[in-house]
Write a structure and sequence with these properties.
This protein is an alpha/beta fold and 280 residues long. 30% of the residues lie in helices and 15% in strands. The chain has a 6-stranded parallel beta sheet, with helices on both faces. Strands 3-2-1-5-4 form a 5-stranded parallel beta sheet, with helices on one face. The radius of gyration is 19 Å and the shape is globular.
Length: 280
Amino acid sequence: MVGVRFSNGFGNNLFQYIAARLIAEPASLPLGVVARPSYYGLDEIAKLGLPFRYTPSDAFDHVVADEDYSTAAERGVSPDDRTLLTGYFEDYRHYLGHLDRIRSWFRPVQRRTDGDLAIHFRTGDRLFIKREFPVKPRVDDYLAAIERFDFDRLHVVSDLPEWRTYREDELRALTFHQRVREANSVPASESARYLNEFVEGLARFDPIFRSTSPAADFDYLRSFDNILFEHGTLAWWAAVIGGASRVGVYGPWRPWRGDANRNLSQVPLDGWFTWDRLAV
């Protein structure tokens, strides 16, 4: 068996699942997932029709980490191996030569025939994390990126329950899949101001709002030919697997990570472009 340990986050789980299956499939090995039994990502991956076995971590003999993945993928595994992948595997070079194969694992979705644009606007913990806040793109940066699309209607796909302005107390009361400790969080007043500027700034487009489950939002995004997002791994895979012909991705990706930042915004796919902040 080849297994993978799921971290928190559905987009992370897509990378982890795909990385493990690319190794398991050539050896005709089943794919096992290690996670706490109540973890929501197990149900979300299952909703996509992706096969796996829920597996205890002691079922494996050795571990493949991020830095070992390229070697393990090149070497391959034997039918007797019991290998557990533990990491994020967010390097486009692992996948670029296998995109047709990866796309074949996902059920087709009905592609939109209009020219609508979808923005994946992840909030949740990203609205509060102190170390990210100074380098986050603002609404004017998004508006400049939107101008690079020729589109009809604008859709906003988000983990917010409603697309509207929020008071500080309303934001504090929202529950997301991960909570930020107060010591690592900006004041709620800053988070509310940041969010409300987006709601007000995009009001001119009268956007269509969508917020369901991670798997359903992923499939919804896959149906668009125009996609704009910041650094979301869910949106990244939706754009890649869906084959969107015009994709805008925030070029710095996650600049606060320094040397540990990922290369996902640099993936050399036709129709993709990077956008940045207008002023830093």
